[in-house]
Amino acid sequence: MVDVWKYVVKMKAPSPVSYVSAILLIVFTAGVYKQLTLTQKTANNCEMTFMFEYPHFVEISVPMNRGKYNLYAYTEGQTMEKIKSMKFYGTPVIFIPGHSGSYRQVRSIASVNIRKMYHIQSNIKFDFFTVDLNEEYSAVFGGVLLQQTAFVSQCIDTIIKTYEHDYKPTSIILIGHSMGGIIAKGLFIDPLFDTNLVELIITLATPHRPLFLADHYMDSYYDQVEKIWGNGLDKPRSSFLSNISLLSIGGGHRDLMVWPCLTYTPHADINALSLAIPGVWTSTDHQCILWCKSLVKSIVRVLFDSAESDSDDTIYEWRKKVSTYHFDKRSNGKWFHSNLHPVTVKLNEPNVIEWNETYKLQRSISLEKGTAMPIVIHLPLVEKSLNYEMTAEAVNIDYHDWVFSCKPDYRSKKHCLFGTNWSSNSTISVSKFMKRRHITLKLPDVHKLGHSNLVFKIKNTKKPTALNIDMYEASDRTNEITWRFWYGVFNRYLLWNVNVFETIQYKTILHGWPDSICMHCVYNVHMVPIKCSKKNHHAVSKFIVPWTQGILHGITSDTYVEPLRISLENIPLSNATNDPYLQFILDPKCNYRIELELSIMDTIGTIGLKYGLTFPSYIGIIILLVLSNQFSQLANSTKDDCSIYHNSLPSIIRVFKTLAITICFLTVMQNQWPNINKPIGGIDWLGHPLKAMIFSSLLYCITNSFMYFATVALWMMMLFWGKAINELLVRFIMKTLRKNATLSDWILYGFGKLPIAVSMIAILISYNTCGTVGLIISAFFYYFLLCTMVQDCIDQLIYYPIIFFKEYFMKGEKPGLNLSLTSIHLHFSLFLLWLLICGCHLPCSIEWARNYHHSKSLDPDPSLITSLILNTCAGIMWQMDIPKRNLKFYAQLSNLCIAASIILFLFCQTALFRIAPILTLVFVVITLHQCFSSWIGVQDPTDNQVSGANDKTPQKKVE
Fold it and tell me: Which of 197, 433, 460, 490 is nearest to 353 (CA)?
């Protein structure tokens, strides 16, 4: 009995490297799975906004509308009748939804804004408009970006014309969610657009650099946006955009669609993450950022505070102060005004308790029942404090101005009449109970003013109040570590062991993290209380990145523990930028052990989600290397045979050699022409040779292991499901044509013999609908052909014992079993190539399906040309018995595949739309080589003498 696996599969045992790759794939998959389920497993601390009154959307007619887009005005309650009569009196705010976003997503921001307007009885009014962009998939199909931009521009003109002359606005506010933020920035691409109309743009979870480049339309659109907005380095923002405030807000690590590194843009006035915004302090997912109540309130406060200014600043400068206060350094109140913290404050008030402090460097004042009278604490500074810092924590001190410096009056020599206010330097901090504010002052800055006292005020209150003060020499409380990515891998890395009481501030500077191998590694910082002199305690850890706004917080208390999660999302713009650092505000009644731990699974998941965008290019590289080996076998084999996919994989040594050489070219290319491969997602290591080698090898091994298991599964399906697929097709044809099984069999037989008919049908469908649809139809038929070819081989194996018995015992002849699997193996590799091309163009078919009720064909269609070419090639190749025997130039075809794989590595890791044209070109060359075999000629007979001697039996054709 012939062994089925010997003839059909012929797979050799995996190498040890394959087992290592399989382990990497399992770990990688587990990390990605953990990251994807993070939002479901962790609590969402955002409170949802709720509607006070039923919302209404009043449609506004837009001239030259293409039919699939619309414009609406939002209204609810008392304003409904005015809006329905098209009477607007406030500043227009236009909401632009993003990828698959609905115009109804404006409800939270608009409703809270209306409630706030009624609550504060302000003369400032806003009218909210929202754009319906048909919920198009603009993040994966760039062909709609220019259409959406043109419609939003028309909406702005329509809105301005809707206002009566006396209320005609001079500017508008744009709020864009996801890709809607890119549309807001892209309005200025049009030179005819009036840039003076827009003064403020707020982007929510917007990818300011592309998540991935699915087509050249998206690449071109982002290029045009960067051309006018700049990149923060060699391209500054255009002068006509200098007075436009751009605020970018990201969701943080819970947003798995748009990561924090994508929401950062160097030309924004504010880059903030929701988990770092004062008063919000929680990460939001991609949709939650629109309805998170605390964040929505902060945005509304920015709108109101920006619209009313009593300072001498320009509108742009004032708006930047307002947004900085609310999104970065909020010192106390919910509202900002120019006199929030007056520079000079009168200190000698009547009926206060004067508390003259000693020269003790650390002190804590705890008033558990509050105080009936205001308290003023005078803290004299000694001369040695010139090299010192002071950190203070105010607990439940509601007064805006609470910390000052002064010089004692020459009469009293103790007290001060007036003081300089430092309260604006303080920031509110995350807390699970009681409001907390922290401030750190460099005492040399105080001495420069000629002051020798620090003064703290505590207002009379019935609430528990506390004040913790810590004065120290900066070098004693600061340690510096040179960053190594393996810190905290095997056990927690000790940062501080605080074994003394009364101290509250410690600092750790992280040198060299931006230059480390794993910039996107995720770490947890733990503050473990060792000994406390009281039951209730509270400590806060902070992570400060100087080139971004906002502070990340972690909490340790007697009832709640939340480690500080840190990850360096963005690299600094220049080498002169200060290093990121950790700051710890401890409870003075506790000792702590502060440790750093690498979160391995979070790191793997983060790397997988960010770097996984390169997988299509690595899949293409692997398939091309397999094809190269198969063509090399056809050129050198004495049997003119090529082995199965799994036996044609290149050796790991050869792969690493190729990677090393290619990475050298890649490094030179990135340094000379950095715009060829733009950073997408989290992939920004292509110009760094060591990082490129490490991550490229890792990604190759993981992809290779994935492809190994995927192709094994595909072979199993072809081996055991071939008959089932044939029967399903017969039943489908019978049901469609309402005919008997005989006619269905004849139809399938006809398609098997005349596959050019399928190719022509696919071309017609591609031309009239979408190119990807034609590719998918041909892919299904290609798979059907493969199943048929494999089934024929299996049938021969099954019937071989009967034939053997008949021929050997009745005629005395021993029959031969002539199975040639070369055609199956080559077609299998070409089928994988076809599937990858379909995958690269899959977003086109998704967008076509979304807009099918508006248009039967996709316009523009990046996949059309590819589909026409490939289906033409398929119609030719499916008619032939390939590969042709003893043809010339198989060695050259092998080299062509290697060259194409190198091109994929150099140019396609961050530009996925380049993969399909390269693979299509390879497919065309293979087709031409096989089609014009009579012109190409055969190899020299002397090269195949051994083949002629050994291979005497003719090869049987396999249909």
Answer: 460
User: Residue 939 in 3-state DSSP?
Assistant: coil
Mean pLDDT of the chain: 83
Sign of CA dihedral 319, 320, 325, 326: positive
Please give the average per-residue pLDDT across 775-795, as a whole number.
82
DSSP 8-state assignment for residue 943: G
**Model confidence over 922-945: pLDDT tens digits?**
999 999 988 876 666 566 545 544
CA angle 141-144-145, nearest 5°? 95
- Enclosing H/E stretch for 127: strand 126-132
DSSP state of 651: P
User: How wide is the angle at C-alpha 252 spanned by C-alphas 507 and 302, nearest 5°?
Assistant: 90
% of the chain surpassing 70 pLDDT: 85
Cβ atoms < 10 Å from Cβ of 23:
12
Give me the mean pLDDT over the 224-250 stretch.
Answer: 83
Whether the pTM exceeds 0.85: the reply is yes
- Element housing 619 (H / E): helix 615-636
The strand pair at 198-204 and 172-177 is best described as parallel
Letter for the amino acid at 14? P
Tell me, what's the pLDDT at 946? 39
**Long-range contacts for 878-883 (Cβ within 8 Å, ≥24 apart)?**
878/755, 878/756, 878/758, 878/759, 878/782, 878/785, 879/755, 879/756, 880/930, 880/931, 881/823, 881/957, 882/823, 882/826, 882/827, 882/930, 883/634, 883/640, 883/642, 883/822, 883/823, 883/826, 883/930
- Dig out the tokens for 863 from the structure: 């996949």
User: What is the per-residue pLDDT for 109?
Assistant: 93
Give CA separation, 242 vs 172, 194, 230, in Å.
16, 14, 11
Contact (Cβ atoms closer than 8 angstroms) between residue 66 and residue 149? no
Cα angle 606, 609, 610 (rounded to 5 degrees) comes to 85
Cα–Cα–Cα angle for 712, 639, 785, rounded to 5 degrees: 40
Q: How many helices (H) and strands (E) does the chain have?
A: 26, 29
**What residues contact residue 535 under an 8 Å CB cut-off, 6+ apart?**
558
HSE (side-chain half, CA atoms, 13 Å) at 627 = 30
